[in-house]
């Protein structure tokens, strides 16, 4: 997806337009890492390391145009996940135009900060309130550290006169070399809900999760840190999370890939969704209450990854 020529420099980030005319925000670290966020959906559409390598997967057949959510990057799933409700799949947040939150104090490299960030805001439209009659404010801070780590902090506030409940997920499409060479560590012995078996509950038996067929699972009560190891690239994604008790693991494999119009037939080999989420049990907010969910993604050489699972607290 090419960047447009029209741009506006802000503290810590730059606002540009994509080829559809949609606003995007770009943050670049002094060491060369970068992240791009599209205001359509508040969606991270690119995250590159300091060598310019893309770390997130986006389908070659992705549709970059409302009302279709882009197949790739990190869509925001709110206020529902999947089709378990009355709204469109994964809720409406990923299909709305977000605004830059001008009231949030900018974060920039320097002044003892090793991060730069942009703050986005989503409030319900009249149409949203017709299908989901709850007044909310959803704020998203996307930050890029000097070392290239990506963090997302979401805050949902109830500005309603009555309680409401919601699900939430960062639907993260990781770019991998070959799905058959990937394994996930940190989810061993956990219970999971299998969406391929009517959400039946099972217990993970393997010492790591590997892939040889379609997978669509919700691991419940998961730890704050897990690792996704890509043997061929000798790269490990470290996923840290707070306020998000579940991990969704999804790969459509060959058969389902062929049924998705915005996904290449063989692209399942190059992607893996590992979502920090709150989906098994809904989050309920009373009037005036606020919920916070945090995700931090790091990409490190696999030889350095073993320490990370032993030291969970860093967000």
Q: What does this molecule look like?
A:
It contains three helices and 21 strands. With 315 residues, it is mostly beta strands. The chain has one domain (3-310): Beta-galactosidase, Chain A, domain 5. The two termini are 30 Å apart. Residues 1-5 have low confidence and may be disordered.
Can you give me a brief rundown of this structure?
With 315 residues, the protein is mainly β.
Please write the CATH class name.
Mainly Beta
Strand content: 35-45%
Shape: globular
- Count the domains: 1
Structural class: mainly beta
Spans of at least 5 consecutive residues with low confidence? 1-5
Overall helicity: under 10%
CATH fold call: Beta-galactosidase, Chain A, domain 5
Number of helical elements: 3
- Rg estimate, integer Å: 19 Å
- CATH architecture assignment: Distorted Sandwich
The ordered H/E elements are EEEEEEEEHEEEEEEEEEEEHEEH
Overall residue-averaged pLDDT value: 89
How would you characterize the largest beta sheet? Answer: 8 strands, antiparallel
N-C termini distance:
30 Å
Enzyme class: isomerase
Organism: Setaria viridis (Green bristlegrass)
InterPro entries: Aldose_1/G6P_1-epimerase, G6P_1-epimerase, Gal_mutarotase_sf_dom, GH-type_carb-bd
GO cellular component, one term: cytoplasm
């Amino acid at each position: 997806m090419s960047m447009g020529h029209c741009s506006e420099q802000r503290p810590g980030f730059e606002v540009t337009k994509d080829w559809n005319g949609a606003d995007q925000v770009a943050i670049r670290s002094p060491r060369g890492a970068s992240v791009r966020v599209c205001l359509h959906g508040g969606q991270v559409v690119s995250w590159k390391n300091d060598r310019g390598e893309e770390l997130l997967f986006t389908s070659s057949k992705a549709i970059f145009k409302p009302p279709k959510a882009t197949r790739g990057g990190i869509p925001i799933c709110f206020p529902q996940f999947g089709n378990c409700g009355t709204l469109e799949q994964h809720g409406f947040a990923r299909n709305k135009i977000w605004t830059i939150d001008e009231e949030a104090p900018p974060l920039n490299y320097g002044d003892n900060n090793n991060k730069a960030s942009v703050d986005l805001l989503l409030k319900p439209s009249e149409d949203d309130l017709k299908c989901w009659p709850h007044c909310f404010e959803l704020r998203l801070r996307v930050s890029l550290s000097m070392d290239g780590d990506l963090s997302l902090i979401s805050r949902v506030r109830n500005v309603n006169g009555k309680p409401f409940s919601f699900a939430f997920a960062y639907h993260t499409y990781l770019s991998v070399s070959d799905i058959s060479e990937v394994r996930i560590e940190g989810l061993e012995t956990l219970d999971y809900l299998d969406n391929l078996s009517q959400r039946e509950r099972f217990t993970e038996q393997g010492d790591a999760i590997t892939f040889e067929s379609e997978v669509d699972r919700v691991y419940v009560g998961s730890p704050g840190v897990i690792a996704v190891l890509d043997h061929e690239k000798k790269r490990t994604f470290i996923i840290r999370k707070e306020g998000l008790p579940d991990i969704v693991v999804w790969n459509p494999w060959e058969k389902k890939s062929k049924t998705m119009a915005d996904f290449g037939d063989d692209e399942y080999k190059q992607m893996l969704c590992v979502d920090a989420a709150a989906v098994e049990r809904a989050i309920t907010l009373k009037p005036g209450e606020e919920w916070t969910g945090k995700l931090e993604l790091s990409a490190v050489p696999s030889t350095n990854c073993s320490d990370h699972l032993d030291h969970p607290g860093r967000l």
